[in-house]
Amino acid sequence: MNIIKKLWLPILVLFLFVSCKDKKNEAAQELDIPQETYALEDINDAVLESSVIYEANIRQYSEEGSFEAFTKDIPQLKALGVKIIWLMPIFPISETKRKATGGDFAYKIKDEAARKKILGSYYAVSNYTKVNPKFGNLEDFRNLVKTAHDNDMYVILDWVPNHTGWDHEWITAHPDYYTQNEKGEIIDPVNPDTGESWGWEDVADLNYDNQSMRNEMIADMSYWITEEDIDGFRCDVASNVPTDFWKKAIPELRAKKGIFMLAEAWQPELLKDHLFDMAYNWEGHHLMNHIVQGEKILSDLKDFMASNKTKYESDDILMNFVTNHDENSWNGTVKERLGNASELMTALTYVMPGMPLIYSGQEYGLNHRLKFFEKDTIPKIKGDTWGLLKSLGQLKNDHKALNGGKQAAGLNIIDIENSNVLILERVKQLEKLTFIGNFSSEVQTIKLPISGSFIDFKANQQVDYKSEQKLQLAPWEFKILLNP
């Protein structure tokens, strides 16, 4: 009888394992994702070459606003070429001085029902090592990270090092961790250029002259790497934090695991000496907006791209974007700002050197300014924008000519007589990609400076061009040509 029991148990375990695996494989096939999963290696330079980064707004991503709801959709992001998921702050939000829409504080709203709808800013963190209970619990978060890893994606956390919410325990336990005025009162962050408040009254400014605070900040960041297996950080207003803090913190964090560091900043010095891997392409973003709005011309964008070759080092990465959480909520949707040029400018973010960003809802053609301090929801209807981002993501993943990491493909800006048309070549090893875009609201005709057979990316067919052949481009039209 004992022998039978000993034989029966492993047979049952094997049966259950095979049964579960079959069901998992069936689900994987339905979602069109690989059936095999494995331990994901630490993020490395090779991954960064072909990555698309996705900014996840957990609160607004679904009606539930939960980790669990977002986790269900992670396999779909593979179809968009996403390799890095950036989670907007997942931490508890301070109750004290919660901001409301319009800039007022929640406590001033007399109607209790209306006051309860105010959820506050994600960036008013009350605890760096806990998760926002409105999003779920720690196990829900861990499942999100595991699901991402199982789908060959990395997860970075939005870290807020410049300030905390007014409920953070440091406010009472360590007031010396904060910047104080001449009266000894903790203050909100101040613009170093003007000495005046930024207007972020819902947060308290941290004092980086305090070495103990610095050490606790590094310890809290380390927790998420060593205990929760996250893969790096996007650091809010990174340039407002002393660079010598990053020189201490980042090497200590990298010693624990290969991580990816994104700075919400543009300053080249933050990318030097293996500090941050990637910075924001703010200037490129603003130029795209200004060109469409008639405030800048195409030559300004050309000059900017050319100047980056000397402004930044060859292994610096810039994040290219047409939208993000700030732009969407405060400056307008992609359609509001870019109108009929939306597809052209989106394609440019993939073709320019760097890494393209997708912000939650962009993939669904979101044309709504998401509320920042209250609950909102992204409508999920796949349309033309999903198809565009899917094809661009696959192109970014699969073609070395679009490598945008630390060994990026070369960039050639081809001069032509027409000042409204941009022609870029990206080249790496034997692969070449040519981008032709009409950056105007009028039809443009050019004489082609290229010749040969190409694969037209949008039409998905071979085309033959001769040098000096005339090509007509509709307003805001673009072409991406691949060497066959």
Features:
disordered N terminus; 33% helix; TIM Barrel; 484 residues; alpha/beta; 3 domains
General description of the model:
This protein has 484 residues and is an alpha/beta fold. The chain folds into three domains: 1-36; 45-409, Glycosidases (TIM Barrel, Alpha-Beta Barrel); 414-482, Golgi alpha-mannosidase II (Immunoglobulin-like, Sandwich), CATH 2.60.40. It is built from 15 helices and 18 strands. The strands form four sheets. It has an eight-stranded parallel barrel. The protein has a six-stranded antiparallel β-sheet with strand order 11-12-13-18-15-16. The longest helix is centred in the N-terminal third of the chain and has 30 residues, at 2-31. The chain is globular and about 75 Å long. It starts with a helix and ends with a strand.
Short description:
The chain is of the alpha/beta class and 484 residues long. The chain is built from 15 helices and 18 strands.
Record the SSE blueprint.
Elements lengths: L1 H30 L13 H5 L2 E5 L1 H4 L5 H11 L4 E6 L24 H5 L21 H13 L3 E6 L3 E3 L4 H4 L29 E3 L5 H16 L5 E4 L7 H12 L5 E4 L14 E3 L1 H11 L5 H14 L5 E4 L4 H7 L2 H5 L3 H10 L3 E5 L24 H15 L11 E5 L6 E8 L2 E8 L5 E4 L4 E5 L4 E5 L4 E4 L4 E5 L2
Parallel strand pairs: 1-2, 1-10, 2-3, 3-6, 6-7, 7-8, 8-9, 9-10
Antiparallel strand pairs: 4-5, 11-12, 12-13, 13-18, 14-17, 15-16, 15-18
Shape: globular
What's the CATH superfamily of the largest domain, by name?
Answer: Glycosidases
CATH level-3 fold name of the largest domain: TIM Barrel
Secondary structure tally: strands: 18
Task: Identify the CATH architecture of the largest domain.
Answer: Alpha-Beta Barrel
N-C termini distance:
68 Å
In round numbers, the mean pLDDT is: 92
Q: Beta-strand percentage?
A: 15-25%
Low-confidence stretches: 1-38
Strand order of the largest sheet: 1-2-3-6-7-8-9-10
DSSP helix count? 15
Q: What is the radius of gyration?
A: 24 Å
**Largest pleated sheet:** 8 strands, parallel, barrel
Number of domains: 3
Q: Which CATH first-tier class of the largest domain would you pick? A: Alpha Beta
Helicity level: 25-40%
The computed structural class is: alpha/beta
